[in-house]
Write a structure and sequence with these properties.
Blueprint: E1 2-5, H1 6-20, E2 24-28, H2 44-48, E3 53-55, H3 60-72, E4 76-80, H4 91-98, H5 101-104, E5 114-119, H6 134-138, E6 144-146, H7 151-163, E7 168-173, E8 180-183, H8 185-189, E9 201-204, E10 209-213, H9 217-228, E11 235-239, E12 242-244, H10 248-258, E13 261-268, H11 273-285, E14 294-298, H12 309-312, H13 316-324
Length: 341
Amino acid sequence: MAAVTFASALNQALRDALTADEGVSIFGEDVGVAGGVFRITDGLARDFGDDRCFDTPLAESGIVGLAIGMCMTGLRPVVEMQFDAFAYPAFEQITSHVAKMRNRTRGAIGLPIVIRVPYAGGIGGVEHHCDSSEAYYAHTPGLRVYAPGTVEDAYSLLRAAIDDPDPVVFLEPKRLYWSKAEVDLAALAEGRGVTAPGQAVVRRPGEDVTLVAYGPSLSVAMDAAEAAQDEGWSVEVVDLRTINPYDDDTVIESVRRTGRCVVVAEAQGFASVGSEIAARVQERAFHSLAAPVLRVSGLDIPYPPPKVEHLHLPSVERVLDTIARLQWDDTPDLRYVGGAR
């Protein structure tokens, strides 16, 4: 195995999909010759031709509208919204047409579109470049929403999204593009060791509390679980991997074992995916809970300037402080004081 970056895993997934299916094409703003602003499509136009990987005008609604028409002729388009908030001009197309076409046609027409969205913060970006917009899409029936948090899932979930007969909003955490892991991409391409979409994974076992995370917050949860050992806490981390479909069973099984749950998600907290997870845990595992389900989220504000984004984003210190609020039986007045809140 070799060290592979999150970005190169995505690039290889697109490359393998283009090779496997002549109906797959990739397009968006600057994805052709330039290879995208994050170079995720680097080399694809050169190797597959500009009829299969090409640039479009700066018109997100037109990009998605074109993809809808292509699907109706039997093609499988993969489109890129250059940044998370840049996708909003296409929102009407996505929610009114992409999400509803199968239902509107009584199942006769599916739209196998993948809408790639580089999203979330942690890169020192400015407003309109760092939104966590997953709740908009997850709230829309007819859309699947994937949010990989590992290099392995960057590859395998993107391949699964392209093969899916229904539309997928594929959220790519920008802060993870340069993360690395030892991954056998050839094995993943053959389906070996691949976990299917809709199946959450326990990334770290624990006994005292469950952290539920996805996408860019997974690494924060993992780091917090490691740091929690110094406080004597055994922390389990559940990676959702996909928001829709959502894996109730794995989350509830974990919480019933640990008795405590903290949801870690970068998006603003009010009316969020984190809110839905907390509600579902309380409804389904209420009698197993030793404390209320708590959340660590972004602040309910527009995305802040780069110099203060660290105050907005979930951090290891904020997660540990929240775990400490869960009121342990043997130390009811416990407060975490290991770092700034």
